What we know:
Elements: E1 2-5, H1 11-20, H2 30-33, E2 41-42, E3 45-48, E4 67-71, E5 74-76, E6 81-83, E7 94-95, H3 101-119, E8 123-126, H4 140-147, E9 151-162, H5 171-182, E10 185-189, H6 195-213, H7 221-230, E11 235-242, E12 245-255, E13 258-266, H8 268-273, H9 275-287, E14 293-298, E15 300-301, E16 306-307, H10 309-316, E17 321-331, H11 332-343, H12 359-364, H13 369-380, H14 387-400, E18 404-408, H15 411-426, E19 433-437, H16 442-450, E20 454-458, H17 469-472, E21 480-486, H18 495-505, E22 508-512, E23 520-521, E24 524-525, E25 532-536, E26 550-554, H19 557-566, H20 588-598, H21 601-618, E27 641-644, H22 648-657, H23 685-693, E28 694-697, H24 705-716
Parallel strand pairs: 6-8, 13-14, 19-20, 19-21, 21-22, 22-25
Antiparallel strand pairs: 1-3, 2-5, 3-4, 4-7, 5-6, 8-17, 9-14, 9-17, 10-11, 11-12, 12-13, 15-16, 18-26, 23-24, 25-26, 27-28
Helix pairs in contact: 3-4, 3-11, 5-9, 13-20, 14-20, 15-16, 15-19, 21-24
The structure holds pyridoxal-5'-phosphate (PLP).
Amino acid sequence: MTIIPYSVYRKETWDAFVEMSKNGTFLLKRSFMDYHSDRFFDCSLFIYANTLPDGEFKEKGLTTKDLVAVFPANWDKEHYTVYSHQGLTYGGLLVLPEVTQKEVLDMMHAILLYYRDMMQAQRLVYKPIPYIYSSLPSGEDLYALFRAGAQLSRRLVSTCISMKNPMKMSTLRVRQAKKAVEHGFYIDRMTEGDTQTLHEYWQLLEHVLKTYHNATPTHTVQEMEVLMEQFPRNIRLYIVRHEKRIAAGCIVFEWRKVAHMQYIASGEEGRTYGALDLLFRHLINERYKQFEYVDFGTSNEDGGRYLNEGLIFQKEGFGGRAVCYDTYEVNIANAISEDKEQATGEATNGKCPVKYLDLKRITNSFEPKLTAEVSRVVQGGWYLLGKENKRFSEDFAAYCGTKFCIPTGNGLDALTMILLAYKRMHKWKDGDEVIVPSNTYIASILAVSRARLQPVLCEPRLEDYLIDPCRIGELITERTRAIMVVHLYGRVCDMKPINELATAHGLKVIEDVAQAHGACYEGIRAGHLGDAAGISFYPGKNLGALGDAGCVTTDDGELAEQVRSMCNYGSREKYANEMKGLNSRMDEIQAAVLCLKLKRLDADNEARRRMAQAYSKGITNPLITLPAPTADPLQNVWHIYPIRTPERDHLREYLAATGIETVVHYPIPPHRQQAYMEWNDRTYRISERIHREILSLPMSPVMRDDEIARVIEALNTYNV
Ligand SMILES: *Cc1c(COP(=O)(O)O)cnc(C)c1O
């Protein structure tokens, strides 16, 4: 089975399927459903019979004839809840006539899995399509819901006439109908496009609902106008007039052999003289004589909480019977918890592995919005230097608190361009020096080299792995131009002494914020703690794109202009090149992705802090050195949770054997790299020790509590 999310480009496939299905109604056609699309976030699904390897969808791999079901649905992100369509009275799985009970069971299961994995959904609220709309006996979905442990959460009572076996119309109703005729009431129908009649009726309806039921119609009259125009053969307005005035009326939704009364209303005069009795007698005995069902709609009031027995009694007087229309609720985690174990049978010790960083799970946690954003940009037809870049640079500058943010192709280029621009602006020479931490990721140092400046390595503090301000002073020479600080592993450097030193010696402070998006130092965000910052949005970072991306943030207007020009061939005006620039731009798709993900960055960082706290509290093994706490928790966004242990590789193998993935950041210090051969015989003791002992535990905002608990347990049972 393959499940594909609905997209507007496949509206026709959807509508054609609704026509063919065993239980579709026009209410489930797109032009009816989508009418509510601004109010509800659509997460409907197409379900195909055959399976593609890896669930990869190739248009040509699946054809419409493989389509066996569709599932109309909305997503309530705030409550992690999927609704089988919020805007409609009914909405559930639509299947082909030949689909079996077993297949429906499998489908429902796959649907629940899909919503759990793609959206982290916790609940499904399901409103089955009433049997009267089914061309064949139905209820397979109810059985599947039952098997998934569904609970009844709401019951509406409707009154329905089975036209093959109607009950006799009561004498009271017949007498009332006669009375209406005697007093000159007559039946009329709104002709197509006669919106004046519709508006007139709507006034009566609103008045009646308000006076007698303390309610308002679900649709506005304007909405109903549009819907009637869209579905002239499915939605009709019948009225009863008295001396031209509208005395009563109702709207009928017709689909195949079912007529569903909605928005029934009668004014004072109509009530006294039985106007609705006249109308319903006509509709039942004449107009809908050949139909299978006439449904009078629900008699629940106050959002379903209260049942109006008087209404049911009246409706039954026309020959109807009360039927229940129910809403069910499924707890998704409970529904699929047992087979989760089975599904991951290949896992270590019967449990699925804890990944170091599950990028797919992170991506899925932004669905379906993320894919919608990507499609929007793809369809927009503009891919570089456009409004998504503008939006991102505004949003991210505002987030960091800087005056400027210039999107770039990646983090390395961002850092390189800052240095190149300063070189031009302040006439630095090739070989001038930039102080960088000796234990950073190689990119910080490469940026200095690429700008033809000289990296000068400074040892970190062992407690927090950050550049040691006490050691910077002794490295400053005549040729020193800047200090590049790296907020390594997500923790901000000790900026106060560093900025003081820089001011005293006239040095620039450049931040490498690749690992610390959102971290704060005394209320100021990383990216705004020095003169300029280079930031990476590599997919695995706290704020990650779906590919390469980066940016420069600064308050320095001249630097901003230089970088903006440099990243685009050294030109601000097309084909006018003021410098020998490079090509390092963020594409529009990444900018849109980052705008979306930025909104959740603070919450994600908070989730990382909670996990770090769980690790720090839970891990008690004396062989393991935990990261030191910060005075202010906002100083760390836990890009990485680094521990140290003397037998690091041994611990790593042990964890791998219990199914826990870890990473070493980083196994070889920069001065031992072949790329920096000139430094290979030097010794940086602290760096070397860190590189030998450090290990990063699984960490991401979408890790589950049970996974954290497993890591803690494994670490606490470890011994040499
Ligand atoms: C990831 C990273 C970079 C480089 O970013 P890219 O976007 O991959 O070029 C630079 N510095 C540090 C510390 C990093 O972790």
